[in-house]
Amino acid sequence: MLSLLREISLRHLVHSPLRTLLVLFGIGLGVAMLVATTAVNRSLVGAFTETVGRVAGKADLVVTNGDVGVPSELVEAILDTKGVAHAAGTLEVITRQPGGDGPLLVLGVDFLGDRYFLPFKSTAGQDAVEDPLELINDPVGILVSRKLAERQKLELGGALELVTGEGTKAFRIRGILEDEGPTAAFGGQVAVMYTEALMLSFGRGERVDRIEIAVAPEHTAAAMQVVLQKVVGGRGRVEGPEGRAQHLAGILGPLEAGIQVAGLIALMVGMFLIYNAVSVAVAQRRREIGILRAIGVSQGRVVLTFCLEAGILGLVGGLFGLLLAHGLAQLALDQTTGNVSQFYAPIQPTPPKITLDLGIYGVLSGMIATLVAAYLPARAAAHVDPVETLRRARSSATARRRLPHRKMLFAGLLCLLPAFATAWLGAEVLVLGFVSLGLFVVAATLFVPSFVLIFRRAMGGIFEAWLGVPGRLAVDNVERSMERSVLTVAALMVSVASGVCIASWGRSLEMSMMDWVEQSVPADVLITAGSPLADQHNVPFRPEMMERLADIPGVDVVQPARIINQEVGPLRLQLLSLNTDRYLAQQERRKRKLKYTEGEVQRGELYAEPRIMLSENGARRLGKHPGDTLEIDTPTGRHKFEVRAIFVDYTSDQGLGFIDRRWFQEYWQDDLVDSMDLYLKDGVDVDQVVAEVKRRFGDDRALFITPASKLREEIRRVVTQSLAILKSTDFITLAVALLGVVGTMLAAVIDRIREIGVLRAVGATQRQVAVSVVAEAGFLGLASALTGLFLGVPMGLVFVRTVALASTGWHVDYSFPAAAAARVAITVVVTAALAGLLPGRRAARMDVTEALSYE
Amino acid sequence: MIELSQVSRTYLEGSTPVHALLPLDLVIDRGSLVAIVGPSGSGKSTLLNLLGALDRPSTGSIKIDGVELTGIDDDARTRIRREKIGFVFQFFNLLPTMTALENVLLPAKLAGKKDAATVERARQILGRVGLSQRLEHRPDQLSGGEMQRVAVARALMMDPPLVLADEPTGNLDTHTGQEVLKILTSAVDGRRTVILVTHDPRIADLADRVLTIRDGAVVSDVRTQKNAVA
């Protein structure tokens, strides 16, 4: 068996370098996608875990309460609880350096309190940690990580400028910390301050982000969790550090699922490439197989030889894929990190690692995919008739193979039933959404043979009229090699449909968001610091800023908006607090209206009593309706809010709660402002006001001043950014599919060598031969583009109405992405035709006498 | 008229040169039926390929009706093949997706001719070879003899001065072979030359001239009295 492999298969691999490289590249890309997506997922989840458990290395339990934090006085109460060995509060602030390009994490540590959790070691300015009095007495004293110091050439005694709630402020560097523990987190973009100094500089009040607790040896963490939850009451949530990490990581579930599915699709498309390559090998070696069969090689051995050959390619391609995977993962991670940081939690993931288990997983997946894909053509090889192949073919017409296209069409129609049923039944179940998408793909694939036949008949005359004999031959050959044509079209179709599907989501989301922004954000100018949107990276303002902005000529009203992450039951709800009467008055003035799905809010209602409006996704997840009560843990304890209305909102995929600022200030003891929304007097020039705000505050506060018109652009940018990772995986799938077209056309050329010789003999020019190959590839591209567009519509609908709804809870109106679809379709047709150039050139340059004597 | 002057063909098998055709001088007059005979591997097909502008000689020059074949580019050679040479192969080599009529029209269409007169000519030629009832049949619906007759019709479509046939009856039974041969010999006229490569001495007997090739060299060149096929 091995001798057959060594003597025959390996020689062919070496002697057909183009085919071998094509397969290796195809498998490599598929495996790289699969491994890279897994590595990215691990990095993201790891970064979440690290983000949550930065100083939780020694902690058994952690007390948290979303972005609001927990009152620092709770530390004493917890320390007094029997069974608690250590407890310390930690504060974290994400800020930026003016002109700096990335977020920076500032940890607040109580150097005078329980130092059990203090995990720092300094390399310079050692006193700052060992004898912290000097640091504590300096309200602008700060310690920086070694990585940060080296990156920015910071020195002891030097200054570090940071954006604070009161503008840019210079901090004095009093120590440089070793990159370990929390200082190694967040990509080393870490600084440490004394908690109270940090509270003061960033206006964080008397609250810490979390309290770490170490349980005494004779007690269990589980038991103490119950005890401490009673002590903390509604002011926070007591849990194990890993529980919180898992909770946060769970938010990433849909993103992870999307990335993984994209990886699997790439591998499946890679399988098509392998199928093609092995088919080429079988076509090329038909005579050789006939000889082997004639001299006594069994069918089983022929199958095994081809499968082993494919397995070797799978192994080498898989290893090659691992080399690509790291770069690909880094690229994908860079794209995803911004997204996750902006929308979920600020993270700085470590570079993705291709670990041994991941490597084995990738290579094995590549090999299994290869073997599965190779099996059918290998079986076809085993069935080669030795008698038939050993005598010269009577006519290549005998090689024609037909697919049972009518049966396939019928099976496809049958598949549509469960596809629609799962889409309808599983409106909010992610798994059913994916099942529905899969069924649509299967149904469309089964329709492909019928479509290709009809399309070939419809286009035959057009291609012949346009390109003459080469055009006619191109479409004829598509039908002659139906199996191969169908596979190529199916693979490209899936790529096109995925592109259309993702674009549908982007377009639909963008359109719905635009409409929502139009109706729900009536302000003329929005001002934030540190980030263009009120998200995980912006630095909140002190409330005094409101008056200073109100002084600007032309400003009618300043609306303070505070938006925080608030844990409500299993959800991480975003809680928006506004001066609701002011907001609703401005809505009326500008004739805009929130889109309510249940109930409605009138002026004064949210102010008068603790009431809340919920976004429809949040309400659905919490199972709340108008009239229900929602209990929220705040720094002043658990408070009840009456649900007043449900409305359409796209701020957070987890859900949004909307309350009056009065209750936020009272219950949360927080008067910070994330976004200052300016309403201008009638007839005032927006640009003039923007210029004035910039003149007065811009340089000092790293402000983002966004006129309403620019907000649309910003939202468009955010939507595009959020789809970047999916789009890039889609691009790779397309690349693999196009490699498949090269493979298909190479196979087509090999199949028809003699025929090409005849054509050349009877007067076809090199150009005409090349054109027929390129036209065939273009035809396949065109058929793929059309089927892809047809498949893309139901896929887009299912994605928008099922998968995306289950992931985000957002009801988004479907909008067909005409421009993007046209772009994808044209790209596929053009690149498919281009993919035919190399095989076309090969066919054209074939030696005519050799081609004529080819057997 | 076909003129070969010191034409040779040497191939490389690996690094070993193989002399498929030794230097040869040859003149073939218009309007004759020439048979090239010889054992397998003697160089018959090599000579035919060179005459058909399918291959280039290693040395020497080939002229067809005064047109030099050596030293011209691929497009010019293609044009010569299309306009001046018709090919008939042992294995018919029809395009399987095209009907008999379309196969015959192929050289004309490749030359950009698709007018009604061209189509009519193709019909007439097919009628001449006895296939007027099989115009719309595809190769897999035709017998071997019918396929070869379509191939002959295709070779005659552009009315070339030279028809080259490589073992045209090699894949046919005796009776069908005779029919095909009859058509081929009838194609010879005052301005058209037909050159046949064959193993069959009975076919050679029909030729005006018989060239015997062995080990790449013409070992005999016999001009015979032309016989009509009964």
Helix/strand layout:
The complex is a heterodimer of chains A (855) and B (230).
Chain A (H helix, E strand, L loop, with lengths): L1 H14 L1 H36 L8 E4 L5 E2 L2 H6 L4 E12 L8 E6 L12 E3 L2 H4 L2 H4 L4 E5 H7 L6 E6 L2 E11 L12 E5 H7 L5 E2 L1 E6 L5 H12 L4 E3 L1 H11 L1 H32 L1 H9 L4 H45 L12 H27 L3 H5 L14 H21 L4 H38 L1 H12 L1 H39 L4 E5 L14 H7 L4 E14 L2 E8 L1 H10 L6 E4 L5 H4 L2 E5 H7 L6 E6 L2 E11 L8 E5 H8 L6 E6 L5 H16 L1 E5 H44 L1 H9 L4 H43 L9 H18 L1 H8 L3 H5 L3
Helix pairs in contact in A: 1-12, 2-9, 2-10, 2-12, 2-13, 2-25, 10-13, 10-18, 10-25, 12-13, 12-25, 15-16, 16-17, 16-18, 16-27, 17-27, 18-25, 18-27, 18-28, 25-27, 25-28, 25-29, 27-28, 27-29
Chain B lengths: L1 E12 L2 E13 L4 E5 L6 H8 L7 E6 L2 E2 L5 H11 E4 L11 H11 L5 H13 L15 H13 L5 E5 L7 H14 L5 E6 L2 H4 L4 E6 L2 E7 L7
Parallel strand pairs in B: 3-8, 3-9, 6-7, 7-8
Antiparallel strand pairs in B: 1-2, 1-4, 4-5, 9-10
Helix pairs in contact in B: 3-4, 3-5, 4-5, 5-6
Structure report:
The complex is a heterodimer of chains A (855) and B (230). With 855 residues, chain A is of the alpha+beta class. Chain A has four domains: 1-59 and 241-393, no CATH class; 60-239, no CATH class; 448-520 and 713-855, no CATH class; 540-701, no CATH class. Helix content of chain A is 59%, strand content 16%. Chain A contains 30 helices and 22 strands. In chain A, strands 1, 3, 4, 5, 6, 7, 8, 9, 11 and 12 form a ten-stranded mixed β-sheet that branches. In chain A, strands 13, 14, 15, 16, 17, 18, 19, 20, 21 and 22 form a ten-stranded mixed β-sheet that branches. Chain B is α/β, with parallel strands linked by helices and 230 residues long. In chain B, helix 5 (144-156) packs parallel to helix 6. Chain B has a domain at 2-93 and 160-223: Rossmann fold (3-Layer(aba) Sandwich), CATH 3.40.50.300. In chain B, the strands form two sheets. In chain B, strands 6-7-8-3-9-10 form a six-stranded mixed β-sheet, sandwiched between helices. A four-stranded antiparallel β-sheet of chain B has the order 2-1-4-5, with helices on one face. Chain B has helices at residues 44-51, 74-84, 100-110, 116-128, 144-156, 174-187, 201-204, and strands at 2-13, 16-28, 33-37, 59-64, 67-68, 85-88, 162-166, 193-198, 209-214, 217-223. Chain A binds chain B through residues 392-398, 400, 468-469, 472-473, 476-477, 479-480, 754-755, 757-766, 768, 848-849, 852-853, and chain B through 45, 49, 52, 54-55, 74-75, 78-79, 81-83, 87, 89, 91-98, 106-107, 109-112, 138-140, 144, 147, 154, 158, 171.
